[in-house]
Amino acid sequence: MHRFANPARFLKIARPLTVWLFWPGLILLLIGAGCGLFVTPADYLQGDTVRILYIHVPAAWLGMGGWTGIAVAALMQLVWRHPLAAIAGRAIAVPGAFFTAICLITGSIWGRPTWGTWWEWDGRMTSMLVLFFLYLGYIALGNASARQGNGGGVSPVTAIFGLVGAINIPIINRSVVWWNSLHQGPSITLRGSSIDTALLWPLGLTLLGFTLLFAAIVLMRMRAILAQNKVEARMQRLARG
Amino acid sequence: MNQWAFVIGAYALTLSGTGLISLLSWRAMRGAESRASADRA
């Protein structure tokens, strides 16, 4: 990992990688969404609302995966002092918060015709809402620490916040097992899936598509922060004369 | 209750939001990289 600690070396890889991740991601996402909308059959019980699955599950995956990425970046920043880890943490935060919000909203839209309610204060939904608030706190702390220097990345205190907040990830994951709620139990586990393959296959396409797109967005945001650092360093040199 | 109204609403919000965040990230990257290379020149 320290091989990529040099921003110049990182950028040499990140520039082509951004394109390679973005376009395949977008194509996979559109194919998966199209198939989910028009090719797969309606569910015998839920009807057509089951099609929300193909965007709701990837959004949940990216909301949780984003914070896991923040926690890993925080660990690398605090333990190995990896110079790009602080920037990576800050770059993940906004897309992570966005997909957490999308998960909450699409879940709410799915809940209304299925459960008869937009919202339920149960373990899964409440812990996901807590994740969204954690993201907002992390973004605020990250922006404040970037304004105070820290090379455009997050401060060590913000990194600790990212690490501590990761306790919410297993809570979200296990919430449907620990507490009974309107939300269904885990339908995709390491042992297999309880979803019929006729409905399941487009989910693989949208999951992969959204994940590649998320990675491309994070790389774009990291590149923006690194370029901004260059401009600021140049201005500081000029100011010093 | 028309189920398709819920499905289309969820997809429209997700896809337009994903497009918007991609565009904003790309514009921020392009703007910052242009300024950085203009400074170097």
Write out key terms for the chains shown.
heterodimer; A: 241 residues; mainly alpha; two-stranded antiparallel ribbon; 7 helices; 2 strands; B: 41 residues; 1 helix; 93% helix; 0% strand; transmembrane (chain B); Heme exporter protein D (chain B); transmembrane helix (chain B); membrane (chain B)
SSE inventory with pairings:
The complex is a heterodimer of chains A (241) and B (41).
Chain A: H1 7-38, H2 53-79, H3 85-115, H4 123-147, H5 156-165, H6 168-178, E1 188-189, E2 192-193, H7 197-240
Antiparallel strand pairs in A: 1-2
Helix pairs in contact in A: 1-7, 2-3, 2-4, 2-5, 2-7, 3-4, 3-7, 4-5, 4-6
Chain B: H1 3-40
Describe the overall structure.
The complex is a heterodimer of chains A (241) and B (41). With 241 residues, chain A is an all-alpha fold. Chain A has one domain. In chain A, strands 1-2 form a two-stranded antiparallel sheet. Chain A has helices at residues 7-38, 53-79, 85-115, 123-147, 156-165, 168-178, 197-240, and strands spanning 188-189, 192-193. Chain A is globular. Chain B has 41 residues and is an all-alpha fold. Helix content of chain B is 93%, strand content 0%. Chain B has one helix at 3-40. The N and C termini of chain B lie far apart (61 Å). Chain A binds chain B through residues 22, 29, 33, 37, 47-49, 51-52, 55-56, 59, 94-95, 98, 102, 105-106, 109-110, 112-113, 210, 213, 216-217, 220-221, 223-225, 227-228, 230-231, 234, and chain B through 1, 3-4, 6-7, 9-11, 13-15, 17-18, 21-22, 25-26, 28-29, 31-33, 35-36, 39-40.
Number of domains of chain A: 1
Q: Summarize the helix and strand pattern of chain A as letters.
A: HHHHHHEEH
Strand neighbour order, sheet with most strands of chain A: 1-2
* Mean pLDDT figure of chain A: 92
Averaged pLDDT of chain B, please?
92
Oligomeric form: heterodimer
- Count of beta strands of chain B: 0
Pfam families (chain A): Cytochrom_C_asm
Organism (chain A): Sphingobium chlorophenolicum
GO molecular function, one term (chain A): heme transmembrane transporter activity
Main location (chain A): membrane
